[in-house]
Amino acid sequence: MIPGGGQPNMQQLLQQAQKMQQDLARAQEELAHTEVDGQAGGGLVKATVTGAGELRGLVIDPKAVDPEDTETLADLIVAAVQAANESAQALQQQKLGPLAQGLGGGIPGLPF
User: Fold this and answer.
1) Is 43 helix (H, G, I), strand (E, B) or coil?
2) Dihedral, 95, 97, 101, 102 alpha carbons, nearest 10
3) Does residue 14 belong to any structural domain of this protein?
């Protein structure tokens, strides 16, 4: 048998896998600390979430508060949080997408 006979070097593969795992952990940590915003109602409601999708803040302009119409306010809050989460998902794709492709496809549990 020829040494190396076209077989991948297991040590090299292991090192590559470890580096990818470290890169993935670093990217996930960065996402957990990066905040993105979403808004609705022309800025009347603003939501802030982390790149990992955790809601961190909610700002409601007093003009959005109408005691007679709480449904509209609720809709604006939901829309702002959804917009922030869409930004978080785009950030996840940007940070983790190349790492996931390096693993031969998507990573189970991640939204892409």
Assistant:
1) coil
2) 10
3) no
| DSSP code per residue over 34-81 | -EEEEEETTTTEEEEEETT--EEEEEE-GGG--TT-HHHHHHHHHHHH
Tell me, yes or no, if the pTM score tops 0.70: no
**Residue whose pair of structure tokens reads 């109408």 in the numeric block:** 66
Alpha carbon distance 24, 34 (integer Å): 15
At 112, the pLDDT band (50, 70, 90 cuts) reads very low
Provide the 3-class DSSP secondary structure of residue 49.
Answer: strand
Sequence-separated (6 or more) residues with CB below 8 Å from residue 23: 99
- The range of the structural domain enclosing residue 66 comes to 32-102
Query: Could you give the number of structural domains in the chain?
Result: 1
Between residues 83 and 23, the one the model is more confident about: 83
Q: Phi and psi (nearest 5°) for 67?
A: -55, -25
Q: Is-contact 37 81, C-beta < 8 A?
A: no
